[in-house]
Amino acid sequence: MEKEPASKVELAPGVGGGGEIPTFDVTLKVRRYNPEISDEAHWDEWKLTMYGTDRVLDALHKVKWEHDGSVSFRRSCAHGVCGSDAMRINGRNRLACKTLLKDLDTSKPILVEPIKGLPVEKDLIVDMEPFFQSYREIMPFLISKGHSPTKERLQSAEERERYDDTTKCILCAACTSSCPVFWTDGQYFGPAAIVNAHRFIFDSRDDAGDMRLEILNDKEGVWRCRTTFNCTEACPRGIQVTKAISEVKQAILTRKI
Amino acid sequence: MQVHKYDVVIVGAGGAGMRAAIEAGQRAHTAVLTKLYPTRSHTGAAQGGMCAALANVEEDNWEWHTFDTVKGGDYLVDQDAAEVMAKEAIDAVLDLEKMGLPFNRTPEGRIDQRRFGGHTRDHGKAPVRRSCYAADRTGHMILQTLYQNCVKHNVEFYNEYYVLDLLMVDQEVTVDGETRLEKRVAGVVSYDLASGELHVFQAKSVVIASGGVGKVYKTTSNAHTLTGDGMGIAFRRGIPLEDMEFFQFHPTGLAGLGILLSEAARGEGAILRNSDGERFMERYAPTIKDLAPRDIVARSMANEVREGRGAGPNKDYVLLDLTHLEPAHIDAKLPDITEFARTYLGVEPYTEPVPVFPTAHYAMGGIPTNISAEVLSDNETVVPGLYAAGEVACVSVHGSNRLGTNSLLDINVFGKRAGLAAAEYALTADFVEIPENPTAETEALLDRARSSEGGERVAAIRKELQDIMDANVQVFRTEQTLLEALSVIDGLEERYTRITVQDKGKRFNLDLLEAVELGFLLDMAKVMTAAALHRQESRGGHFREDFPERDDENFMTHSMAYKDPSATRTSGVRLETKPVIFTRYEPMERKY
Hints:
The complex is a heterodimer.
Chain A: E1 23-32, E2 42-51, H1 56-67, E3 86-89, E4 92-95, E5 110-113, E6 120-122, E7 125-126, H2 129-137, H3 157-162, H4 180-184, H5 191-201, H6 209-216, H7 230-234, H8 241-254
Parallel strand pairs in A: 1-5
Antiparallel strand pairs in A: 1-2, 3-4, 3-5, 6-7
Helix pairs in contact in A: 2-5, 5-6, 5-8
Chain B: E1 2-11, H1 15-25, E2 30-34, E3 50-51, H2 62-72, H3 79-99, E4 113-121, E5 126-132, H4 138-152, E6 156-159, E7 161-175, E8 178-192, E9 198-208, H5 229-236, E10 241-242, E11 247-254, H6 264-267, E12 271-273, H7 281-284, H8 294-306, E13 318-321, H9 327-333, H10 335-345, E14 354-363, E15 367-368, E16 374-376, E17 382-388, E18 393-394, H11 406-428, H12 440-451, H13 458-472, E19 476-477, H14 479-496, H15 510-534, E20 543-544, H16 552-555, E21 557-563, E22 573-579
Parallel strand pairs in B: 1-2, 1-9, 2-6, 9-17, 15-18, 19-20
Antiparallel strand pairs in B: 3-5, 4-5, 7-8, 8-9, 10-21, 11-14, 12-13, 13-14, 16-17, 21-22
């Protein structure tokens, strides 16, 4: 236990920062598609004045709220935990609410497109059903044989740590839709489903690891992974996705969890 | 128009909705309707933990938890409900563990527990370790675990189905030879976002679990989608809303942004300082200091800023200091929130204090229910087949101020109760006949929004609403600020009749969706402000500068707000009262 902190301390001058937030101009280019109007996609662009603390989501909102209400995208929490707003920003999969404009090259237009490999419904909205279908197939829930204890099951801190990284997944699909194998073969489970299988395979309380390994040993399973690391780079939660996939591959080979 | 038939329909797929679905889905034909995808719900943003007196790390019992909850709510808590919650908390945590939730563990392998604001040992003697947690992403783990178990039990979801109306009918019933009209629920009307089509869901039981209304405020920890829809559809159909004047401002939102930094930071030892570097909570709550309940801490912070001791160039925030904590400890226990400080403010919490200010966080009030999660249409009358749970409901376990972690607990305990009760009722009851033209009201609502060409922008009206709520109905309130807010809201409502929705399509028309959501926000802002005006005292999260004391003689009652066009002074909201349920605790002065 830390000792009680001091009742009063000297603060460094300028601590906390703040004050006038700088503004700058950006050009936002959004990939538009609405089959109600046309089968062809096109780009629209807007020049916007934005603040230093603004994110790509703020720019999209500015467009929707002040310029063109028909621009369509999903979003909810706006701080990187709900997974609604994964999109391709300057060619990279990111969450719009976690990408600060000032961290992008604002001297050039910022390109925003829907994530790849899933059918586009309208503008930045894609059909997520194939993604969730793969997720459901790996049986993403704890399967425990034997009697349930009266109180909690015991799990050591080390056992808990073993699968910690893959519990962070928010199912945003940034990883799966960044994977070149998934782009060309929609049947491939994709990184997110494997990450979620990993979360249970390496949970000491789970008894269905073998079943999940068998599912992922399928021809559309882990062996399709070409270790390009796109998924790890795309993950907004910092999950070591490629490492998790390798651990699943290893477990299939050795049948040791 | 398509018609679907289910025994149980659940509106909302956050923690309460999915917890209900796990119970109802195994017993009755159940559908869950959500305007999002289930895993996008805002339960996932909760951070710090879920309290239960497991006593895994130190002595504790559920009676102490009940007392803390009652005192934390400034004695406006219904004590029967608080008892149920604190008692069932233990099984609620164990249920989640058995479903697979990855709690942090003690060295012995048990669920670990930590301190949280207002949770104390032996009736306020000292902070107690009661919060069960998974790092600072407990809500994320709960949401994922519940969704995983819904997948396991094949729960049927209708994703991106936005429920816009509650189908209620008045049915004649004869009790003891006396015939009277009784409200019954027949189902819901929902709008399929993908196609723009309306779907009617006939159901024997309807569970409303659609979450809160934080977007009435500008600075908020709430998601964009939390627009009070569930409260709104009930209110428009004549159901009262209870205790809507009580809205919680979470002390530690990232300054200027409102993004939440969990109270777990203070639970793990972080403290608040003003511009003089002073740990000011020592003055406001000498015993438990920074771990005082949220209403007290938020008000103390606002007071420091008002008296000129705010930090920063504009002196408009205070500082959350974690610099005395070990970086390894921070990484293990608070990884996400320290990442938020780095990402959004560019502040390194290892070495620098983080600018924070209260952020609108949680509605204590909502749709009135009893402890079986049955909705009440007045102080006593149950609406057969209608249930509510979670933030949308008011049972009331939070009274005038919710303790940290008790919301994750509330959704699990009362979500489960709602699911069980809804399934049980559906197994014995008959369907209520759907009224003629069930979609008439909804179609009229959508047509008004789509066809109006007055040129007013939804986003502009919403911004003005949020600005006035932040300025006038925040931590400090007076009759004058509240009357002014009501008159501004009336004006905004008038402009709302002249909006233009630019998107004219049917497919994923989120422009139209935002227009409809604004209608609910305006209704709820009005209810909250009218209820605040009615309560001429200060209690918990509601502080009236013109009535700074708690007044038990006149206001030890819940407020009940009814839609009533004849109540002109309060913009069509009529206020009544409802007695508080006492069991074992007499009101005392609230000191920490």
